[in-house]
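Chain A, query sequence.
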Amino acid sequence: MPRVSWCLSVAMFIAIQTGFLGAAEIQEKPNVIVIMADDLGNGDLSFCGAEDLQSPNIDALFKSGMRFDFAYANCPVCSPSRASLISGRYPELVGVPGVIRTHPENSWGYMDPDAVLLPEVMKTAGYHTALIGKWHLGLEAPNRPNDRGFDLFHGFLADMMDDYYQHRRHNIEYMHLNDQVIDVKGHATDLFTDWSCDYLKSRVGQSSPFFLCLTYNAPHTPIQPPKDWYQKVKQREPNIDDRRAKLVALIEHMDSGIGRVMKTLRETELERNTLVIFTSDNGGQLNVGANNGALRDGKQSMYEGGLRVPTCFVWPGKIAENSKSEERMITMDIFPTVCEAVGAGFDHPIDGISLLPLLNRKTQSLGDRDLFFHRREGGLRYGGLIANAMIRGNWKLLQNSPFEAQQLYDLSVDPLETRDLKSVNKKKYQEMAQALRVQVQRGGMVRWQNPTAKKK
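Chain A, predicted structure.
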């Protein structure tokens, strides 16, 4: 059971008795929707500068609230960032240093059964919790969505779909409604959109607020947009190549789905009191045509292109429209931000920091904390070892492969990471390398393998 603090309830009781907080204010807790795209590059929105792509609905979200120009994913690949989203912790500290996969010999994470997750905390605050879309944090008990605090799971358990219409991975059907395998027809993006709209309609008139995680597979490989969306892009952009056109169409198709979800939110009159957060789990995959802007590299990489992601927070009447922040935030900050916004207390350790003061236009600096990035992976490129990075102020230390040397960059003057300063500033390098080793030791104390898995 979550170790949830009662301090907040006591504080609210005192506030009511002293007249500082009305009962109606307590009852009207905000709904929360977290929308996470899969492998969406930092430059793959028209709002972010893409000239061959149209994303009016996501653009509208960014204009309706606060955008973070220096938002980071906790990892340049899927599972670890998702673990950080719902735990508020560095992913290796909850047993997910790498990608969780079907076959144990190629799986590099096992969610700690004792980790306290966001949906569990939200339930203690009276929320109905739902995950619609991709899970990717466990394929069997005790690490399926319903095991970890979600009242409703309508989506895909595994890492990626081999086909957006067949919804299988390694010829296994991973699409579920709660604990039941389902075989449904349609493009996965459309299904997740439809199910989310249905869920919002079902919450009208309910006494309890809701917490919805809408986690699309798009635009993850295979790059498989509906044919009509692909043809529309090809007709509009005569000079676009086929590879890029397919990715653009897949992103635009997802954008349309998000537009339908937001339209349903308005039509159900739930929008006024709903906090909406949009982000991506990592940067775009370059070899399928992704655009990460001017940033170096992309998905799987510890360079900025693999870690920086488009992120915004929208809450009508609470967060100023067309506002922005240049503070460095990271995926794990969403956990404490949501908890503070809804009044959900907890007393277990986390690594994220609540952004609510900043979102409420109060002074808040996040620049004095270290940020760590950690990824374990197999194959000849990684050998089951770790790639790492850390940011301290404007300095960034990274080791993009366990077989490469560490590199040091000053992001304030070299945001594109072109000049390695390790040999120039040896003191800074030694200082950061020592701090990174301590973080590696922290992660080394947490089990990340399923003790019941049978490896070949």
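Residues 130 and 202 are 12 Å apart (CA to CA). The domain at 30-359 is CATH 3.40.720.10 (Alkaline Phosphatase, subunit A).
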